[in-house]
Amino acid sequence: DAKTTQPTSMDCAEGRAANLPCNHSTISGNEYVYWYRQIHSQGPQYIIHGLKNNETNEMASLIITEDRKSSTLILPHATLRDTAVYYCIVRPPLGQGGSEKLVFGKGMKLTVNP
Amino acid sequence: DGGITQSPKYLFRKEGQNVTLSCEQNLNHDAMYWYRQDPGQGLRLIYYSQIVNDFQKGDIAEGYSVSREKKESFPLTVTSAQKNPTAFYLCASSITRSSNQPQHFGDGTRLSIL
User: pLDDT by residue (tens digit) across B45-81?
Assistant: First the structure.
């Protein structure tokens, strides 16, 4: 079962920052937060992951609250190609709850509008 | 470019026929995975392998078989015992199976029954 809660959908204007929220109130101290996205008929694309600290890479930034019960994925300048279903995933450590697999929930549809 | 290549993109199977889906990676990753995605649903793990000549069943291994004779290759055979094989099949790989290592996906193979 997915351990995260995301809005069903969100719209964003092209060129603006897209802030995608995720709640994971039951997260354990050693579980990672992962973000993936999937464009229709393609494989999921890894975006970013983190444990406690905020993370940034060339695609996005991940802000994790101090209590780790929620996080926000930030796409700093959304483009039309960012339209996709975004998945927030909590991943347990190896040997605890099956970290081999990624458990994708329903995700959130982000639509970037011109 | 380094990446994961799945072939073919579309595959059709006749009743009672076995088919093999190809997955090749040139990322020098130790761990490889096979997932199945049905419309409107999340991914379900079929098999995974953390090292050459070793693999483990996932949540829905019945009706499927795999081999890992080479580090870069992890083919999946959908046997006639799989009664509902129509789905989108995704192959992934990661440096190791540690929860701190992201899984990277190929673009999938869509299997349909004739």
Answer: 999 999 999 999 999 999 999 999 999 999 999 998 8
Q: Is A84 helix (H, G, I), strand (E, B) or coil?
A: strand
pLDDT above 80 (res A1): no
pLDDT tens for A24-60 read: 999 988 899 999 999 988 999 999 999 998 999 999 9
Q: Does A7 touch chain B (CB under 8 A)?
A: no
Neighbouring C-beta atoms of residue B107, cutoff 10 Å: 16
Q: Closest Cα of chain A to B4: distance in Å?
A: 10
Left if phi > 0, otherwise alpha if psi is -120 to 50, otherwise beta: which for B62? beta
Rounded to whole angstroms, the Cα distance separating B46 from B91 reads 10
- B99, B110, B112: which to substitute to probe chain A, counting the most A Cβ within 10 Å? B99
Interface check B108 vs A, CB under 8 A: yes
The token duo for A73 is 């994925």
At a CB cut-off of 8 Å and minimum separation 6, what does B91 contact?
Answer: B4, B6, B21, B23, B25, B32, B33, B34, B35, B74, B76, B105, B106, B108
Determine the pLDDT at residue A99: 63
B20 bridge partner residues: B77
